[in-house]
Amino acid sequence: MSEQKTYPQGHWMSLGISIGMGFGIPFGLVLGQIMGKMSVGIALGPAFGVTIGTAVGSYLEAKNKDKIRPLTAEEKKSRRPRVILGVIFLIVGAALFMYLLLTS
Fold first, then answer.
1. Whole-angstrom Cα distance, residue 77 to residue 80?
2. Which of 2, 11, 50, 56 has its CA 20 to 30 A from that of 68?
3. CA atoms of 77 and 94, how far apart (whole Å)
4. CA of 21: how far to CAs of 11, 24, 51, in Å?
5. What is the DSSP string of the chain?
6. Contact residues for 79 (Cβ-Cβ < 8 A; gap 6+)
7. What is the mean pLDDT for each group of 10 consecutive residues in the chain (104 residues)?
8. 3-state per-residue secondary structure call for 26-50
């Protein structure tokens, strides 16, 4: 008997967003270079990446819905510090973007 491998809830979405960011950031840098405003490219790249990644992640979640399991208590506990760190990076990035935009 072979058991089907299961994945925690959000696994496929995380994978999709990672793939999207991998394509979005370089795209944003090229776009910023073309526009002559690197700060705009740095801001738009991750935005495009997250948008594309969310679409890919949603598709993968729907495709693999029979392989998804709820998060365990340990998984929920370990994700909290990563979410806090992500929010901190988001705030710092937004502040840096506003600074660069206003000083350009």
1. 6
2. 50
3. 27
4. 16, 5, 9
5. --PPP-EETTHHHHHHHHHHHHHHHHHHHHHHHHHT-HHHHHHHHHHHHHHHHHHHHHHHHHHTGGGEEPPPHHHHHHHHHHHHHHHHHHHHHHHHHHHHHHH-
6. 71
7. 80 94 93 90 90 95 93 90 92 88 80
8. HHHHHHHHHHCCHHHHHHHHHHHHH
27, 48 contact by CB (below 8 A):
yes
Q: Compute how many other C-beta atoms are within 10 angstroms of the C-beta atom of residue 68.
A: 14
Would you say the pTM of this structure is higher than 0.85?
no
Residue 8: beta bridge partners? 69
**Distance between CA 21 and CA 31 in Å, rounded?**
15
